[in-house]
Amino acid sequence: MFLFKKKPPASEEKKAALALPKTKEVQYLPRKITEVTELLNNDLNSLFTFEPVNYYASKETYLKCTFFYNEDYSQVYFVIQFYKNDAPQSATPFYKADYALMKRALTKFGVHI
Q1: For residues 94 and 11, is the Cβ–Cβ distance under 8 A?
Q2: Across-strand partners of 96?
Q3: CA gap 44, 11 in Å, rounded
Q4: Cα distance between residue 20 and residue 60, in whole Å
Q5: Which of the ends of the chain has fewer CB neighbours closer than 10 A, N or C?
Q6: What's the confidence (pLDDT) of residue 55?
Q7: C-beta neighbour count of 6 within 10 angstroms
Q8: pLDDT, tens digit (0-9, with 9 covering 90-100), for 52-111
Q9: Three-state secondary structure of the chain
């Protein structure tokens, strides 16, 4: 019996995203993470089809999208995690995005960058 499992190596996108200095988080209504991953793998613009949710209204289950970016928005990455009772359960891979995608996604929440 092994107590510690060997983790797979982090992707290049994940390494680059975690090295960026700034983050912005938004929440969406819950969906299956496999469905979310499939949609995003086909087209990143499917992010705009997700319905925003107020974190305080729906704390039990939600999708949290975290954008990682630098000061001039020249590098933007994001990941979506499924949360249940404020604990992450599963996540999509990290995706490379651009300023326009991040700006449009945040505009749905009333955040203008």
Answers
A1: yes
A2: 77
A3: 18
A4: 29
A5: N
A6: 73
A7: 6
A8: 998 777 778 999 999 999 999 999 999 999 999 889 999 999 999 999 999 999 999 988
A9: CCCCCCCCCCCHHHHHHHCCCEEEEEEECCCCHHHHHHHHHHCHHHHHHCCECCCCCCCCEEEEEEEEECCCCCCEEEEEEEEECCEEEEECCCEEECHHHHHHHHHCCCCCC
What is the value of pTM for the model shown?
Answer: 0.88
Residue type, 69: Y
Residues with Cβ within 8 Å of 33's Cβ and at least 6 positions away in sequence, in order, are 80, 82, 89, 90, 91, 92
Query: Of 78, 66, 71, nearest to 25 (Cα)?
Result: 66
Task: Please work out, in degrees rounded to the nearest 5, the angle formed at the alpha carbon of residue 20 by the alpha carbons of 14 and 24.
Answer: 90
With beta carbons less than 8 A apart as the criterion, state whether 104 and 48 touch. Answer: yes
Residue type (1 letter), 94: F
Say yes or no to pLDDT of 28 above 80: yes
